[in-house]
Amino acid sequence: MNKLIEQLRHRLVVSCQAYPGEPMRSPDTMRRVALAAAQGGAAGIRAQGLADIAAIRQAVDLPLIGLWKDGDDDVFITPTLEHALSVARAGAHVVALDGTARPRPDCRTLRDTITAVHELTGALVMADCSTLAEGIAAAAAGADLVGTTLSGYTAYTSKQPGPDLDLVARLSTAIDVPVVAEGRIHTPAHAAQALRAGAWTVVVGTAITHPTTITGWFTSAMADAR
């Protein structure tokens, strides 16, 4: 087992992401959020965008999962090999990319993309999947980690109010590659349940690093109470 992956075993990865138009949208802000997560005990960071990845890599001495969201197609999480290579060269230890069965914009196969990332950069690859079949295929294609990230975010999967723990459990028994539980993990209880379901590591983003959404949860609950 790769030492970096071993560092994440049964521990928390915090996703530090903000998008254009949001108050926290700047690489320096995300760097500070990542530092705060590290102080809180995070074992790894997940970050989006080349500038954010570079800033966080310089500031935080933790395994860094990087991605680049780009384009309007169905496949927009590190959609091409060039995106993946850029993410690795920006400083990501692990390149997260779309691991679904959907066609990639550059027409490369998932296997070809993963192989090229390994050979050209030495970085590891995390495949963000939405179904059991996709996770199995991604593992067979050489992914070092398989995530449940896109469950509920593809046209052919149903979005649940919480994490897809069933997919976590099924993947953990179907593949030898470590399974990353990610997506709608909103409470510490959800994170613990994901570990019990067989997750190697758990990624939490919104519930820790997106104050606009967290505030909305509170205001909505209070409005219902009124």
UniProtKB/TrEMBL annotation:
Primary enzyme class: isomerase
EC numbers for this chain: 5.1.3.9
Role summary: Converts N-acetylmannosamine-6-phosphate (ManNAc-6-P) to N-acetylglucosamine-6-phosphate (GlcNAc-6-P).
Family classification: Belongs to the NanE family.
Entry protein name: Putative N-acetylmannosamine-6-phosphate 2-epimerase
Keywords, alphabetical: Carbohydrate metabolism, Isomerase
GO molecular function (one): N-acylglucosamine-6-phosphate 2-epimerase activity
Transmembrane spans: none
Superkingdom of the organism of origin: Bacteria
GO terms under cellular component: cytosol
Keyword Transport: no
Pathway connected to this protein: Amino-sugar metabolism; N-acetylneuraminate degradation; D-fructose 6-phosphate from N-acetylneuraminate: step 3/5
Reaction(s) catalysed (UniProt annotation): an N-acyl-D-glucosamine 6-phosphate = an N-acyl-D-mannosamine 6-phosphate
Pfam families: NanE
One example of a Gene Ontology biological process annotation: N-acetylneuraminate catabolic process
UniProt xrefs under InterPro entries: Aldolase_TIM, NanE, RibuloseP-bd_barrel
Record HAMAP family: ManNAc6P_epimer
